[in-house]
């Protein structure tokens, strides 16, 4: 019984082996021509054979090419930008002249409006000049009076230079005459008192005495006149001082006239430079005060103030080329150069600079303003609005 089972198992095993050989011999025929096999659907053995084929290498090749191109692009970008420093903390800057009148009055003429372009020397505003014309005329009259007084003082000085020495000589002559009369009176006095009283009369004696006393008084008066007339230099100096005083009065009157004429000229507000009128707050008929700001005049001269980080300044210096992109005008590309670098960060010159010596210290990268001059790219006589954002790129090497 066991032998029969063994023979049956062997026979079954041989049949299975023959069947596998037959399937292996028929598999290529089915793969090459599925129609000859009569089986429309691929069998599991066909899928296994298909999975065992080598996969395509194209995805790996494409990935490698992309990686190589990315590396080349990164190196090329680094080579192009390694010598460039840029910042977006940059704005246009320029001269904004705050215009204010120097005299007060009503505005009688207004030749400007908001955003009006004016040229240097144009009349912008006119203030009522009548009060200042009156002041000028009064100053002219005062000057004429001072000049007349100066002329009179100069004449007096010329007369004094002749009269004062002559007065001294006249006083000296009168003194000599008085002294001569005194000597004669003294001789008569001695003679009347020396003769025998019977040879003269009391009247003659009294007359001689009175004559002597009179001549003494005349001599004393003449001596006083000589002392007064002797102040020749002092009298001439006084006349010269009067002339100097009148000259000073003339100079003062001339200065007053010049000031009156200047004040009159201040009634015409003239444009000091070419530019645009901005923030106008004056109208026709407005009463303006001296020093009151009436408008701004923005000149076409525009530059860029760029606040670079302190770590970007190592190789930056004046004269380096700068390309500038303007946010408001994407198609506008400006060229310029570094003009100067401020000697201090913005924090150092702020109204309330930081005091790092107190409290806890946290290091912050500071920014330093750099002035950039625009060389080309702008239309002539027309600048950019002040304070708009730009992005400068400095070629540091």
Stretches with pLDDT under 50, minimum 5 residues: 1-5, 26-42
What name does CATH use for the topology of the largest domain? Elongation Factor Tu (Ef-tu), domain 3
Order of helical and strand elements: HHHHEEEEEHHHEEEEEEEE
Strand order across the biggest sheet?
Answer: 2-9-12-11-10-13
Number of domains: 3
Annotation keywords:
397 residues, Elongation Factor Tu (Ef-tu), domain 3, 6-stranded antiparallel barrel, 7 helices, 49% helix, disordered N terminus
Furnish the topology, listing elements before pairings.
Elements: H1 2-32, H2 34-37, H3 44-51, H4 58-81, E1 84-86, E2 90-99, E3 105-110, E4 117-118, E5 123-127, H5 130-194, H6 202-229, H7 232-265, E6 268-270, E7 275-278, E8 287-288, E9 295-309, E10 321-326, E11 333-341, E12 367-376, E13 389-395
Antiparallel strand pairs: 1-13, 2-9, 2-13, 3-5, 3-8, 4-7, 5-6, 7-9, 9-12, 10-11, 10-13, 11-12
Helix pairs in contact: 5-6, 5-7
Description:
- With 397 residues, this protein is of the alpha+beta class.
- It contains seven helices and 13 strands.
- A six-stranded antiparallel β-barrel has the order 2-9-12-11-10-13.
- The two termini are 104 Å apart.
Summarize the structure.
The protein has 3 domains: 50 residues, no CATH class; 162 residues, Elongation Factor Tu (Ef-tu), domain 3, CATH 2.40.30.170; 135 residues, Helix Hairpins (Orthogonal Bundle). 49% of the residues lie in helices and 21% in strands.
């Amino acid at each position: 019984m066991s032998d029969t089972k063994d023979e049956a198992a062997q026979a079954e095993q041989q049949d299975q082996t023959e069947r596998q050989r037959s399937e292996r011999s028929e598999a290529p025929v089915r793969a090459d021509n599925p129609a000859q096999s009569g089986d429309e659907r691929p069998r599991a053995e066909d899928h296994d054979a298909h999975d065992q084929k080598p996969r395509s290498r194209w995805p790996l090749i494409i990935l490698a090419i992309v990686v190589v191109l990315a590396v080349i692009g990164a190196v090329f970008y680094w080579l192009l930008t390694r010598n460039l420093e840029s910042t977006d903390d940059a704005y246009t800057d320029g001269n904004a002249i705050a215009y204010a009148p120097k005299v007060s009055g009503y505005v009688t003429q207004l030749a400007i409006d908001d955003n009006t372009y004016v040229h240097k020397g144009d009349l912008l505003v006119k203030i009522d000049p009548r009060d200042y014309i009156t002041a000028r005329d009064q100053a002219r009259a005062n000057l004429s009076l001072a000049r007349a007084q100066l002329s009179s003082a100069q004449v007096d000085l010329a007369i004094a230079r002749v009269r004062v020495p002559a007065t001294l000589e006249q006083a000296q002559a009168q003194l000599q005459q008085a002294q001569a009369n005194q000597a004669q009176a003294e001789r008569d006095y001695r003679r009347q008192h020396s003769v025998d009283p019977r040879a003269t009369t009391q009247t003659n004696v009294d007359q001689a005495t009175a004559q002597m006393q009179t001549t003494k008084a005349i001599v004393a008066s003449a001596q006083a006149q000589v002392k007064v007339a002797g102040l020749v230099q002092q009298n001439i100096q006084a006349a010269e001082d009067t002339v100097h005083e009148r000259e000073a009065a003339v100079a003062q009157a001339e200065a007053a006239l010049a000031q009156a004429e200047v004040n009159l000229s201040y009634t015409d507000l003239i444009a000091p430079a070419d530019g645009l009128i901005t923030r106008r707050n004056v109208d026709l008929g407005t009463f303006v005060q001296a020093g009151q700001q009436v408008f701004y005049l923005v000149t076409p001269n525009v530059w860029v103030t760029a606040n670079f980080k302190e770590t970007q300044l190592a190789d930056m210096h004046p004269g380096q080329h700068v390309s500038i992109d303007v946010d408001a005008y994407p198609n506008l590309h400006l060229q310029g150069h570094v003009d100067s670098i401020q000697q201090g960060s913005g924090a150092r010159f702020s109204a309330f600079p930081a005091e790092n010596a107190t409290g806890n210290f946290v290091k912050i990268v500071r920014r330093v303003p750099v002035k950039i001059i625009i060389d080309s790219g702008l239309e002539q006589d027309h600048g950019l609005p002040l304070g708009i954002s730009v992005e400068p790129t400095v070629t540091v090497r």
